[in-house]
Amino acid sequence: MKYIKHLPTILLAFLFLFAGINYFFPLAPMPVMTGNQKAFFDLFGPTGYMAVIKTIEIIGGILILLPSKRALAITMLAPISVNVFLFEVCILGAPGIGIALIVLNAIVIFQEKEKFKSLF
After folding, report:
1. Taking a C-beta distance cutoff of 8 angstroms, is the pair 20, 55 a contact?
2. Burial letters for 35-61: b for 16+ Cβ neighbours within 10 Å, e otherwise?
3. Phi, psi for residue 32 in degrees, rounded to 5
4. How far is CA 109 from each of CA 56, 78, 84, 93, 104, rounded to the nearest angstrom?
5. What is the pLDDT of residues 56-79, one digit of tens each?
6. pTM for the whole thing?
7. From 44, 90, 100, 101, which residue has the greatest number of CB atoms within 10 Å?
8. How confident is the model at residue 6 (pLDDT cuts 50, 70, 90)?
9. 81 with 65: CB under 8 angstroms?
């Protein structure tokens, strides 16, 4: 039972590490992009923006596994999670994994609430 509390952290780390590593070393095929999604990635692709975000995802995914750095990792990964959710809602028109990312972030923030008390 004491290991169940680590499950949201491990899931969050896996999702971000997989997404980041998959960008640089394609392990899973990317779905075909059309419409607004294609326009969005055509705009940001050549700028190097996605490479920076994916690097932050990898760093955050590693840091969140370290209990002493978990709050730092959440401050890096929570805005990315919100961005993923907004991309799905505004551009794709339907929520997907973004909801799971936000829920997992919220659970980890709640678990680490002592570290965030000084912000409030």
Report:
1. yes
2. eebeeeeeeeeeeeeeeebbebbbbbb
3. -70, 130
4. 18, 9, 18, 27, 9
5. 999 999 999 999 999 999 999 999
6. 0.91
7. 101
8. very high
9. no
